[in-house]
Amino acid sequence: MLTAMTETNPYADVLELTHPPTQTPARRQIERALVDWMHDTGKGAAEITVCALAKRAFVARSTFYKNYAHADAVLDVIEQRILAELCDAGDAMRALARGGASATESYDAFVRVLHRHEDEFRLLLVELPSARFADRWKRMLGYHFWERLFTDGAREQRLRPSTVNRALVLEMIASAFISGVRFWLMTPERVEIPEIKALILRLIRDIDEVW
What we know:
This protein has about 210 residues and is mainly alpha-helical. The protein has one domain (about 15-210): Tetracycline Repressor, domain 2 (Orthogonal Bundle), CATH 1.10.357. The chain is built from 10 helices and no strands. It has helices at about 25-40, 50-55, 60-65, 70-90, 100-115, 120-125, 130-150, 150-155, 165-185, 195-210.
């Protein structure tokens, strides 16, 4: 994440990753085939050949190359699709004036994304952890919290100016959130969802008050 802070949102470049290629039946088959193969083999995307992936997806190699350059490009698009949904889920977070209500709306939207893509989250965070995906997600969280806490509209809601430790705090928030999701996926029996939701909302309210 960026360490040099400016008054413009330094995480805005992550929005460039929220416009994945339009989903088509062929792309859906190829992307699903890659996720399943990685689950089954425990190997990364770079270890499967295009021929093998196309065969598993029941598409011709020519169809594959019309959509992707190589297997890791497929994983990259999968990550972008998830990031696009995470971006939409986080939009409500930007409304500081709505207080806890906006945080509740954003959290509920995130949980829906997690349930829709649980296989992909489990793959990218637990089975074959992707530093690229985690870094991108941290930047997405940084973007939404920056919008909530440090934009001109947010500052108008505040009684005190923000401090210089913005990058550090956003790094801590994003890292802790992703670590919590990883723990949730690894040990769901040790997570009580209503209590976690209440805790997260309390933490966000505390952050709002401090910053």
